[in-house]
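Researcher: Let's continue the batch. This sequence belongs to DUF2652 domain-containing protein, and it's 382 residues. Same format as the previous ones, please.
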Amino acid sequence: MTSIKNTSAEPTLLFIPDISGFTKFVHETEISHSEHIITELLETLIDANEIDLEVSEIEGDAVLFYRKGRKPTAAETLAQVQRMYVKFHLCLRKYEFQRICQCGACINANSLSLKFIIHYGNISVNHVKERSKLFGKDLIVAHRLMKNDISLKEYVLVTNQLMNACSTWVEVDHIAWEKPYKGQDEYDFGAIKYCYLSLAPLESHIPELTLEDYVPDPKMSKILAVESTINAPIELVFDIVSDAHAKHLWVLHVKGSDKTNGEITKNGSTHRCIMNGDDNDPFLTSHDFNITKDFITWIDTNHTGKSDLIITLKRIGNNLTRINLTAMQKQNLIKKMMYTLFYKKGFVQFYSGSLDKLNQYCQSLRASGKRHSSGILLEPAT
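Model: Same format as before. Here are the structure tokens for DUF2652 domain-containing protein:
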């Protein structure tokens, strides 16, 4: 028999950011990338927590935060709302301005929006084995308020129970970005009064995206170039080679990738190739993508090795792709001589072996009728 232990009810802040447009987004776009995007947005909201909120659970398109103890002031609560809103929309802007993938999920990510439900009431915690779950009438109130009569696309709703619990909420008219509206909705347990504010004025706080300029240093020179023909269409080769999480599938000596800034490749994607498991492992940024139907090129900047790898793909047939890897680095005369004498042969073998491994991986996918998991779409689906 399952043992349930519950704590006594305590005054608790309930703080719920909810992603609007989630259902349509998931149902009408590619499930793989829509899942990645929603996960990234939920993680962004959790990482933006600065007022010691705890996560009770993640409910598909919303995070149920709570905090017991001290009462939340108007200033800290609205500041937390602003921080989450800005981080959320900054994440979405990356899909708008740095997007490479042309699938429906990546194209339509900017249609998602955000709303907040903030309530204060008596909540207990049920402990079932190793799991904890919030419980109480006020939790039901917070969830019901997610379905309200507010017509705004993005807003924060704060119940009167919270405003009455903390004296600083009388200052909300002066510290908020706009004068709050008053509202009331009827539910089966009675009327709930609240105030609400549009989040639209916060849009001006979202910083402009600037992709760091990684244009190769003009003092860099070519130190080697390796070419090979891959028995696969250019779309598949690009999907694999541009995938920061797939380096171990074709690059020699790479065991995996970490420290990535997103699951889906974008202009400015970063990752670290795990080779030795130390600080000498290469940390890379992919940038300057130039994509046409039959020719694709981009640059991987190796911050650890202070070098650039220019990757070029050219369609030479329906199922044939020519790939060229050109390494660039700043070298003086002595370094160039040392490199030519002692290192160049090894690097050529490394890149050539990697391209052989890439060809084998592509052929294994085609033989089994499988796709690479990244799923980057180069042209909008018709």
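Researcher: Any comment?
Model: The first strand starts at residue 4 and ends at 6.
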